[in-house]
């Protein structure tokens, strides 16, 4: 991406190389691939530098739009994010103030859920993952119910382990104090033994 500088400020952005006119001169698209940065800058074309240092994981945060800044002294154009806003980690409810302001829907009461927070959504995803894992061995349960065929102990142990871990993970998510704490639960880091793990841990998988 490039910016065109006109009269000391950004006048246009170019996302893909294309022919263009600057002043009274027609330039072909190939200048973007064959000209040096200095040659492009001489006619007012500067490649945009993207600064993602403030950009955060959109699972947990709402990022701002990028702001484009031209530094005439440095001869640079930088696209940078502002400070991200953490998504609500807990559910929010309709308040008495919402009711007083006339914002409370007719089918809702004060104290009802207004918006779901990250905790609810992450636990919902976890439950779906658990259901998918257990589904692989559900046929043992069905066979036992229909044919009274014993469920192998390894299968029962595995299913119990999945549910136990699920409960532990849900507790960890529920007890997270804020959005950064939730993000930390899911952040993988390398351990001293070279393994890569996250504080939340993993759901057990059945050994083949």
Structural commentary:
By secondary structure, this protein is of the alpha+beta class. The chain folds into 3 domains: about 1-85, no CATH class; about 90-115, no CATH class; about 115-208. Helix content is about 35%, strand content about 25%. It has 7 helices and 13 strands. The protein has a 5-stranded mixed beta sheet with strand order 2-1-5-8-7. The chain has a two-stranded antiparallel sheet with strand order 3-4. Strand 1 and strand 2 (about 10-15) form a beta hairpin. Helix 4 packs antiparallel against helix 6. The longest helix is centred in the C-terminal third of the chain and has 23 residues, at about 155-175. The radius of gyration is 28 Å and the shape is elongated. The model has no long low-confidence stretch (mean pLDDT about 95).
């Amino acid at each position: 991406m490039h910016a065109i500088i006109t009269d000391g400020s950004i006048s246009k952005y170019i996302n893909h190389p294309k022919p263009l006119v600057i002043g009274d001169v027609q330039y072909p698209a190939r200048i973007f691939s064959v000209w040096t940065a200095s040659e492009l800058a001489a006619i007012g074309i500067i490649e945009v530098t993207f600064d993602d240092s403030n950009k955060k994981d959109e699972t947990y945060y709402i990022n701002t739009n990028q702001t484009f800044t031209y530094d005439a002294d440095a001869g640079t154009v930088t696209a940078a994010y502002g400070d991200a806003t953490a998504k609500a980690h807990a559910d929010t409810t309709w308040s008495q103030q919402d009711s007083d302001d006339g914002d409370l829907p007719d089918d809702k009461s004060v104290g009802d859920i207004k918006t779901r927070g990250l905790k609810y959504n992450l636990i919902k995803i976890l439950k779906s993952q658990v259901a998918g894992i257990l589904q692989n061995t559900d046929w043992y349960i069905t066979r036992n119910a229909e044919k009274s065929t014993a469920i192998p102990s390894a299968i029962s142990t595995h299913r119990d382990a999945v549910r136990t871990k699920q409960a532990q993970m849900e507790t960890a998510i529920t007890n997270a104090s804020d959005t950064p704490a939730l993000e930390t639960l899911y952040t993988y880091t390398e351990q001293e033994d070279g393994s890569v793990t996250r504080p939340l841990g993993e759901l057990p998988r059945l050994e083949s």
